[in-house]
Amino acid sequence: LDMAMSQNENADEKKVLLGTAELAPDTAAPRLPNYEKLANDITFGQSYSLRVRSHDNKSPVMPHDFQRKENEFKDGRPYLESWNTEPPADLEANPGTLSAPGVWYGEALWKISFTVPDVPGSDRFAYRICAIDAAHNKACTAIETIDKPVEETTDACPTGECTTTDPTTTTETTDGTGDSDSKGPTESETADAPTTAFPPDLTTTTDTTGNVEAATFTDTLGELDDDGCGCNTNRSPVQGLLGSLALLGLLGLRSRRNRRA
User: What region does 244 belong to: left with phi over 0, alpha with psi -120 to 50, or beta?
Assistant: First the structure.
């Protein structure tokens, strides 16, 4: 029995229609007019789900439209078939991995859940959505292929511009081509700590006649005050000026005496 149809119209007699050998077998494949695709940035090793609209050319859609308890096609509800490598040329002769059958959620809509495998050495995921009706007619979508994203690595020195130097001995410069110019410390960097110079003390000695016996210079450092300046705390600046004036006066007096003589 392929089909039974009945109607309840009181004005007409009841009728029962039986299928016979005169009816051609079902050779029309299921239809997949609309289906969802995976995004290109999926993560391998994660679970995903796709929605598809599929029916066997009739409405309403029922689960038994895709089921038959014979041979290997026990459940043909919409499913996903996938490969971890480049899909073979003959897909029917080299079937891929099949997901669990989709779940019907109204009208002709199905939801298929599966996991994108993360297989070592495999960098591709190819898939298609298929459905098989009760008469073993199969329909599939076109093959979709997603390549596994390449992990990006950051090179700290992509052009060889990075160098390791001792900042206390050299100065490192680069010109953008990877060449570096090392310079030694500059004069200002190696100069000693500032020092304070002191003028020599002028010491004079005179005899009892007023003549200048000797004029000698002594280079003395003197004492430093508390704030670090190079000041002579034992002598006043006025004392040095008066000593210079006294020396000039004595030299002038001696010159006049020599002329008188």
Answer: alpha
Q: Token pair for residue 159?
A: 């052009």
Residue carrying structure tokens 């020092």: 195
* pLDDT confidence band for 238 (50 / 70 / 90): low
Which tens digit of pLDDT belongs to each residue from 89-122? Answer: 999 899 999 999 999 999 999 999 999 999 888 8
Q: Is the whole-model pTM more than 0.85?
A: no
> Half-sphere exposure (CA, 13 Å, Cβ side) for 20?
4
CA–CA distance, 138 with 76 (Å, rounded to integer): 8
DSSP letter at 69 equals: S
Q: How far is CA 234 from the centre of its chain?
A: 71
If we measure between CA atoms, which residue out of 100, 152, 137, 114 comes closest to residue 36?
Answer: 114
Q: Which residue in the block uniquely carries the two structure tokens 């090179």?
A: 155
Report how far residue 109's alpha carbon sits from residue 183's, in angstroms, rounded to the nearest whole number. 75
Where do the DSSP E strands lie in 105-211? 109-115, 124-132, 138-140, 144-147, 171-174, 180-183, 201-206
**Six token digits for residue 111:** 């939801």
10 Å Cβ neighbour count for 84?
18
pLDDT of residue 114: 96
220 Cβ contact list (under 8 Å, min separation 6): 198, 200, 201
Lookup result for tokens 């003549």: 211
**In the 8-state DSSP scheme, what is residue 84?**
S
Peptide bond preceding 60 in cis form (omega within 30 of 0)? yes
